[in-house]
Amino acid sequence: MEFETIIGLEVHAQMLTETKIFCGCSTEFGQKPNSLSCPVCLGMPGVLPVLNRKVVEHALKTAIATNCSINKYNRFARKNYFYPDLPKGYQISQFELPIAVDGFVDIEVKNKKILKRIGITRIHMEEDAGKLLHQLDGISSESSYVDYNRTGVPLMEIVSEPDMRSPEEAGEYLRILRSVLQYLDVCDGNMEQGSFRCDANVSLRPKGREELGTKVELKNMNSFRHVEKALEYEIQRQQDMLEEGETIVQETRLWDESGGVTFSMRSKEEAHDYRYFPDPDLVPIVIEDSWLQEIKGQLPELPKEKVERFIKQYGIPEYDAGILSSNRQIADYFEQCTGIYHKPKSISNWIMGDILRNLGDTREIDNFPVTPKHLAGMLELIDKGTISGKIAKTVFEEMFTSGKMPEEIIRKKGLVQMSDQNEIEKVIGEIIDRNAEAVEEYRQGKEKIFGFFVGLVMKATQGRANPKIVNEILRRKLAG
Ligand SMILES: [Zn+2]
């Protein structure tokens, strides 16, 4: 039997704010445990929360960018449960009236060159809980420790519709969503540090059937790769079970990266009843039109718009524009380069090739040693004929390791391209004299041997000879 996979994702994005959602404590990451807490985020009796305006603005920006309808009247609710990382005994979240509903993002389906619309069910604001540590300084202990620095850090939960049909689509949706949040400057998108977390709901159903199968919730995936791998594993596990005639149990499963498996954490029977109710300490949020207009005016150019502009303004292919715009810093880098030296396609080629390769997964171009000035300067030297494209690779490596400007590298290393006709003619003359046999073969029609001569010239000049001049002279001389 053929099965169809149904995937929905819940993303928890930590919002970029200076202070927590309901108090003035700092949200800084990596500080001494419990150094960033106060009576409000610790839930002491008698204290009152005060909503951080920035949190609402971040949520509104996200809602607009993901085509959501905004609930101009929305409110916070208490989600009640007990856990040591939650000092109040409830989490302040949103329930029946979230800030935004019914949005979507478009993702590109790989190899099909078509766009697919993924619905967004809702976006709501909430506070994070603390963090439990089961070992200290890497040593396991009989007790656990709790760090309340994270308690009250603002989160946005973005819930998708079950519109994804494969792990690749889920990965693509996450990449697009993260890129939008980074463009908006509302979340840094760091999955490893936990500021962009994702849970997945996955179920299978026989192809053609309307009714959804029993879903399993997956947690504990802290990179895009983990999400895709966990989903692949889980889909296979459910398929094997269904084929054996077994029943899928509704449960929460954790991804174990080292073992490459998912395992059961809790079944539905143990699931919580959170007893949500409107938080009496916080007044409902009323979003006035003037505020919404102000926020709309602050929105930056989003990835999709940037792609379209890049194609039009710089005449680069859609593929290039898509890659350059997938990250705001890289898009800015590209535009800084074109501002210094207007060769968009060459710049795009270098960014997509050598630069992205050296940047690795983090894509943090802001501290990259080869600045737009370096790259633009080097491209200008290629176009002027000072260096060849081949030598440029060496110059790039050197800029990357030393951060020196291209002119200095070329001067110090003697990499200037050899364009002097007489000088090249002399080198070629010597090569022809030394390879009489090959010359004869060429003259008898074995034209493929031409490349062999070019190679010898390049070797003799350490790659510095101007290829155009080498070709001209070689053809003339070999013709006899
Ligand atoms: Zn606090």
Structure report:
The strands form 4 sheets. The chain has a 9-stranded mixed β-sheet. It is built from 15 helices and 16 strands. The chain is α+β, with helices and mostly antiparallel strands. A hairpin with a 2-residue loop joins strand 8 and strand 9. Helix 7 packs across helix 8, helix 7 packs across helix 9 and helix 12 (421-434) packs across helix 15 (467-479). The chain starts with a strand and ends with a helix. It is elongated and about 95 Å long. The protein folds into 3 domains: 3-291, no CATH class; 299-413, no CATH class; 421-479, Arc Repressor Mutant, subunit A (Orthogonal Bundle), CATH 1.10.10.410. The site of zinc ion has 8 residues, from loops.
Query: Can you count the helices?
Result: 15
Distance between the termini: 72 Å
Strand content: 15-25%
Number of domains: 3
Specify Rg, calculated over alpha carbons.
Answer: 30 Å
Global shape: elongated
SSE-based structural type: alpha+beta
Chain-wise SSE layout:
Elements (H helix, E strand, L loop, with lengths): L2 E12 L38 H13 L3 E2 L2 E2 L2 E4 L9 E4 L6 E10 L4 E14 L3 E6 L2 E9 L6 E7 L6 H18 L11 E11 L9 E6 L2 H20 L7 E6 L4 E7 L9 E2 L6 E2 L2 H10 L4 H12 L3 H8 L2 H13 L3 H16 L12 H12 L5 H14 L3 H8 L7 H14 L1 H8 L6 H11 L6 H13 L1
Parallel strand pairs: 12-13
Antiparallel strand pairs: 1-10, 1-11, 2-6, 3-16, 4-5, 4-15, 6-7, 7-10, 8-9, 11-12, 13-14
